[in-house]
Amino acid sequence: MVDWSSLETVFLDMDGTLLDLHFDNHFWLEHLPLRYAEHFDLHPQEAKDRLIPMIMAERGSLNWYCTDYWSDRLALDITGLKSEVGDRIGYRPHVTDFLDALHGSGLRSVIVTNCHPDPLELKLKLTGLADRVDAIISSHQLGKAKEEPGFWQDLQQLSPYQADSTLMVDDSFPVLESARKAGIAQCLAILAPDSQQESRRHHPEIPGIHHFDEILPALRQCQSLTSGR
């Protein structure tokens, strides 16, 4: 599923890949509509009916992920509201074991996320994730979402990489398709990003796993070979 021996760099999405997407889904679909309803004196369902189409209209764009954009548009402190449900932020199964094995393998691990810097700071504070990878890059630093074709070329400015020796792991099929078109040699989909929802179907062309324990044995074998050299 992954040819570890051919890799130098592993790009990792964060939300839905390393961290449980339940936090983000709960926030946008439940907590935000509730707070929006309270703020504007609306029925919760009326608030949800107003918010969800507005949010979905920005899907795939940088605005979709931008805390500043939604704070301005909705007249609410989005980062502050996210901190109210911060107890839901947590790792997906087997992630810490995977990251430890990745570190031991000698491969460079870089989080490449669409998460805005403000909620990113909150998540890093609550998880200690920054200590487990070599670097973290937010698409907001480049002004382009990962779904956009130009993102991967611009990423070279912040994290130079050889596309033919790079793996991208993400729960978003559009992001993985964008990475493949940009020449990223290997892509891997996460099929169970939200612990409270059913798994997604496999992509017809991109291999997928539910959890990292499915690829840990091969990675650890690569780690053993590396340490034995």
TrEMBL record:
It comes from Marinobacter salinus. GO terms for biological process: DNA repair. Keywords: Metal-binding. CDD domains: HAD_like. One of its GO terms (molecular function) is phosphoglycolate phosphatase activity. Signal peptide: none annotated. GO terms for cellular component: cytosol. This is Haloacid dehalogenase. It comes from the Bacteria.
